[in-house]
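STRUCTURE:
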C-alpha cells in the first residue's frame, strides 16, 4: 500500500495508485495546508500549537485538492493518552456524510505491522523460528530457483526474500475477492527468485502474503481470525478489521478520485495491506509497542518480539547502497531519517491502496505515536494531502512543544557545490532499467550528462532537459535543483560463490516526507546488450495480450477495462523484451526490460535495493491445442484479436 513508486530519475511524486502496498513516504515537500474538522472534542492544553498547525495543514489539503481529498483522519498519542483525535471532510461525498473519529479507512501496508506481530506471537508459542526455512512450515511452497528453500520468515518480514514482488491479480476490487493468498503462492511455483535470499532488501508485498500462509498453517485457522483473536480483540480495536465480505454496519470512508466517488474498496492481500481501521484504534496498537508487548497490563506479545521488530535488519545484507533506509520486521524504517535528523528514534510504516494513503509512527523513547490516513491526493498539486509530510510535521512540532528537541531540524539546502573535474562518463552512459521506466544516460560535449525516459515510442527528456555537471561533493548536479545523481558500482561474490557487478544510477534528495532529510536511493541498474532475440521472440514483438482471469470487478478492470500486456523492444538495447502491463500504468505507461531464459520464458534483469527493483515480472508462454497463452505471475493472457 502506499509508497511512491521507485522515484523515476526525476523528482519523485507521492505514491501512485500502482504503488499500492508499499513503503515510500510521500514525495518531496509541498505545503499541505484550511478546512474544517469534525468529530473531535476541545483542544487539549497539551500540544495545542502542534494540533493547530496540523488542523491548518489538513484544512489546506481539503481545500487545495477537493477533487481527490475528501477525508483525512488523525490521532496523536502521548504515553497512554490520545491527546488529539479528529476526522476532517466527508466519508461519502455523494451522500454528504461527514467523516468521524469512528470512520474506518483502508490503511494499506500499515497492515504489515500486524503480520509481523502475528509472527512474533507464534514465535513466543514455540511454533515459529524466524530463521528456519519457510518451506518447513509450507511443504507445498516451491519455486523454480532452488534457493527458495533458503527463504526464512525473517527474510519475508524484512523484504529480503528475493520473491518477485507483488501478485496483482484481483488485488484491489469493488467487491470481496477470496483466495488471493493461495493464488499468489501457486503463481510463485512458476517463477524464479529475483535475488538470493538475504542478498539485498527491496520492498516486497508477496513476502507478507506468504506470512499470511505461514500464520494460517501454524495457527490452524485463517489469518483474519488469528489477528482478530490475538490482536484486535485483546486491544479493544472494535473499529478495525478485514473486509472479507461486504460490511453491514460501521462507517467507512469511500474512495474518491478525480471528482468521482467509487464504491467500497476491498483489498485482497490481507496481511500485506487489507486492514481497515481508525487512527484511534491504531493508537491502541501503538500502546502495545510503547509498553513492550503489553496492553492494560495484559501480555499480548513478548518484549523480545517487539524488540526484534524494531531491530535493524540491514546489517547482514550483501548489497546495500542506501544505508539511510533501515528496515525492521514489518516496519519500513526503525530509524526514520527525518526523526533521526532531530536525534529521535522512530519506527515507521506507511501504506497505500488504490485510493487511500496512511502513515503510522511509534517513537519508543518519547512514548509518542501518530496515525494519519486519508484519500490519496494528486501529487501534481502543491496543496494536497501527503501522509508522510503531514506526519513528520506534526511529530517534530510535538517534540519541540514538549521540550524534547529545541527546534525543528533545518530543511535540506539545495545549493550546488563548486564544479569539479569530471571522472568521465564512458562507462556510465547507456540504458538503466528498474521496475517501471527505462532511463537513458547520455553524455554531453561539455562533460555533463542528460537523462531521458522511454515513453512508449521515443526517449523523452527528463527534468526539463537538465544537464548534470560533476561537483566537488562527488555528485552530479543540475544547478541548484534538490535532486542530484551519481553512479555506483557494487561488486563481489554472492552466496552461491558467483561473482557479481552492478552499476546503479543513484539519486539523492529530500525524497520522502517534509524535506528535513536527504535519502540516497538506487533508481536504475545499467543493462548491457545481449545476443539478438531468437525467432520465437521476434514473432511475439508488437503483439497485445489480454488477461483472461482477472475479475471485471477489480479496480483496474472497472477504471481502465480488461488489463493487457504488450511486448516490444528498445533499439538501443538489443536482446531484451520490453514489457508493458497496463494494470500497472498510473497516468503514463510503465515498462520493464526482461531477458530471454528460453524460447518460451523471459526473466527479471535487475537487482535494485529499496524500491526501484520491486514488483518484477517473469513471462512464460505455453501452447495447447495450437493456441499460445501467456502467463505473468498469477495472470493468464491470450493474444488479442485484431
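SEQUENCE:
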Amino acid at each position: 500500500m502506499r509508497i511512491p513508486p521507485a522515484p523515476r530519475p526525476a523528482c519523485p511524486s507521492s505514491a501512485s495508485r500502482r504503488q499500492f502496498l508499499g513503503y515510500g513516504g510521500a514525495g518531496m515537500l509541498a505545503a499541505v495546508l484550511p478546512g474544517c474538522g469534525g468529530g473531535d472534542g476541545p483542544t487539549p492544553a497539551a500540544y495545542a500549537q502542534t494540533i493547530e498547525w496540523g488542523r491548518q495543514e489538513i484544512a489546506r489539503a481539503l481545500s487545495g485538492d477537493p477533487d481527490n481529498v475528501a477525508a483525512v483522519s488523525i490521532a496523536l498519542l502521548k504515553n497512554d493518552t490520545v491527546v488529539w483525535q479528529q476526522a476532517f471532510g466527508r466519508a461519502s461525498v455523494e451522500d454528504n456524510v461527514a467523516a468521524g473519529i469512528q470512520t474506518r479507512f483502508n490503511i494499506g501496508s500499515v497492515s504489515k505491522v500486524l503480520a509481523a506481530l502475528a509472527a512474533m506471537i507464534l514465535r513466543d508459542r514455540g511454533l515459529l523460528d524466524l530463521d528456519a526455512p519457510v518451506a518447513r512450515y509450507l511443504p507445498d511452497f516451491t519455486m523454480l530457483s532452488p534457493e527458495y528453500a533458503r527463504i526464512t520468515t525473517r527474510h519475508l518480514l524484512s523484504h529480503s526474500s528475493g520473491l518477485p514482488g507483488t501478485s496483482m491479480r484481483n488485488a484491489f476490487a469493488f467487491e470481496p475477492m477470496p483466495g488471493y493468498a493461495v493464488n499468489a503462492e501457486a503463481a510463485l511455483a512458476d517463477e524464479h527468485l529475483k535475488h538470493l535470499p538475504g542478498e539485498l532488501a527491496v520492498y516486497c508485498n508477496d513476502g507478507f502474503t506468504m506470512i499470511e500462509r505461514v500464520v494460517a498453517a501454524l495457527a490452524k485457522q485463517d489469518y483474519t481470525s488469528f489477528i482478530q483473536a490475538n490482536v484486535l480483540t485483546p486491544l479493544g480495536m472494535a473499529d478495525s478489521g478485514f473486509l472479507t465480505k461486504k460490511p453491514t454496519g460501521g462507517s467507512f470512508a469511500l474512495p474518491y478520485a478525480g471528482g468521482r466517488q467509487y464504491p467500497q474498496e476491498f483489498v485482497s492481500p490481507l496481511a500485506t495491506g487489507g486492514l481497515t481501521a481508525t487512527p484511534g484504534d491504531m493508537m491502541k496498537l501503538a500502546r502495545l509497542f510503547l509498553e513492550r508487548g503489553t496492553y492494560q497490563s495484559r501480555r499480548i506479545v513478548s518484549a523480545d518480539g517487539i524488540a526484534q521488530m524494531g531491530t535493524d535488519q540491514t546489517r547482514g545484507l550483501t548489497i546495500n547502497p542506501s544505508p539511510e533506509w533501515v528496515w525492521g520486521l514489518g516496519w519500513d524504517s526503525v530509524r526514520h531519517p527525518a526523526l533521526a535528523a532531530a536525534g529521535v528514534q522512530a519506527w515507521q510504516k506507511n501504506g497505500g491502496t488504490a485510493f487511500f494513503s496512511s502513515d503510522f509512527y511509534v517513537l519508543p523513547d518519547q512514548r509518542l505515536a501518530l496515525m494519519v490516513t486519508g484519500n490519496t491526493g494528486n501529487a501534481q498539486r502543491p496543496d494536497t494531502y501527503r501522509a508522510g509530510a503531514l506526519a513528520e510535521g506534526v511529530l517534530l512540532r510535538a517534540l519541540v512543544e514538549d521540550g524534547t528537541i529545541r527546534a525543528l531540524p533545518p530543511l535540506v539546502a539545495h545549493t550546488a557545490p563548486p564544479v569539479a573535474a569530471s571522472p568521465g562518463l564512458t562507462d556510465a552512459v547507456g540504458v538503466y532499467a528498474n521496475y517501471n521506466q527505462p532511463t537513458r544516460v547520455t553524455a554531453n560535449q561539455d562533460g555533463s550528462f542528460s537523462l531521458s525516459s522511454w515513453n512508449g515510442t521515443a526517449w523523452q527528456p527528463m527534468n526539463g532537459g537538465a544537464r548534470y555537471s560533476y561537483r566537488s561533493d562527488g555528485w552530479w548536479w543540475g544547478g541548484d535543483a534538490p535532486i542530484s545523481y551519481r553512479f555506483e558500482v557494487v561488486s563481489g561474490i554472492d552466496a552461491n560463490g558467483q561473482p557479481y557487478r552492478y552499476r546503479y544510477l543513484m539519486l539523492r534528495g529530500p525524497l520522502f516526507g517534509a524535506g528535513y532529510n536527504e535519502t540516497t536511493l538506487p533508481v536504475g541498474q545499467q543493462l548491457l546488450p545481449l545476443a539478438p532475440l531468437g525467432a520465437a521472440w521476434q514473432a511475439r514483438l508488437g503483439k497485445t495480450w489480454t488477461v483472461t482471469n482477472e475479475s471485471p470487478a477489480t479496480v483496474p478492470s472497472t477504471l481502465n477495462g480488461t488489463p493487457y500486456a504488450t511486448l516490444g523492444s528498445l533499439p538501443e538495447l538489443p536482446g531484451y523484451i520490453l514489457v508493458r502491463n497496463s494494470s500497472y500504468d498510473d497516468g503514463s505507461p510503465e515498462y520493464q526490460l526482461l531477458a530471454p531464459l528460453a524460447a518460451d520464458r523471459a526473466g527479471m534483469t535487475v537487482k535494485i535495493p529499496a524500491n526501484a527493483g520491486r514488483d518484477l515480472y517473469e513471462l512464460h508462454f505455453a501452447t495447447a491445442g495450437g493456441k499460445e497463452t501467456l502467463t505473468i505471475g498469477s495472470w493468464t493472457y491470450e493474444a488479442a484479436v485484431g
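REMARK: Confidence is low (pLDDT under 50) at residues 1-19, 23-42.
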